[in-house]
Amino acid sequence: PSQLVDVTADGYLHGTALHELAHAFGPKTVMQLGRAIPINEALRDRHGALEECKATVAGFCTLPLLIEKGLVTPELQRQILTTELAGIFRDVRLGEAHADASTLALNWYLEQGAVTVSEEGRWKVQLDKWPGAARSLAAAILEIQAAGDYDAAGRLIDKYGHFDARIRAAIERV
């Protein structure tokens, strides 16, 4: 409950803006079989989830620079990240690429300790660990995109694209 006050409309607006801008990051084509092909063709059915996840986490990777330049306050960063966690539970119920992306990111954050769940089922953003987790996930996705590696995309989605008992319980409460 202590982070609930940081779930804000400003956090949502700014997080969405960072997400949309970060769609520009990464390759648009890859070389395969001696020709440049669009990344969405190389990654086929796995492209949407990876692209949406990349846009979200790569957008968050810009926050330290935006804070350094005085364009974002630490308070707004906290609101962006906390609102993102709340938004994940909305997204995962909707289906399609955004839901797959949110599930992938949430499991990555849990594994990295950037999000924790108490025994009472209370979810919490670990602000000190979120930047590193976002950077490492963005790097993993950008490497897959740069290679146009369909199989690696599948391995990432297979490992992180599922609901465990904690996520299922949280969704049932929403």
Secondary structure blueprint with pairings:
Elements: H1 9-22, E1 29-32, E2 35-38, H2 39-43, H3 47-61, H4 63-68, H5 74-91, H6 96-112, E3 115-117, E4 123-125, H7 130-147, H8 150-160, H9 165-173
Antiparallel strand pairs: 1-2, 3-4
Strand order of the largest sheet: 1-2
Summarize the amount of helix as a percent range.
55-70%
Beta-strand proportion: 5-15%
Q: What's the end-to-end separation, in Å?
A: 15 Å
Say how many strands there are: 4
Structural class, please? mainly alpha
What would the average pLDDT be, to the nearest integer?
93
Stretches with pLDDT under 50, minimum 5 residues: none
Largest sheet: 2 strands, antiparallel
Radius of gyration: 16 Å
Number of helices: 9
Short overview:
The protein is mostly helical. The chain has helices spanning 9-22, 39-43, 47-61, 63-68, 74-91, 96-112, 130-147, 150-160, 165-173, and strands at 29-32, 35-38, 115-117, 123-125.
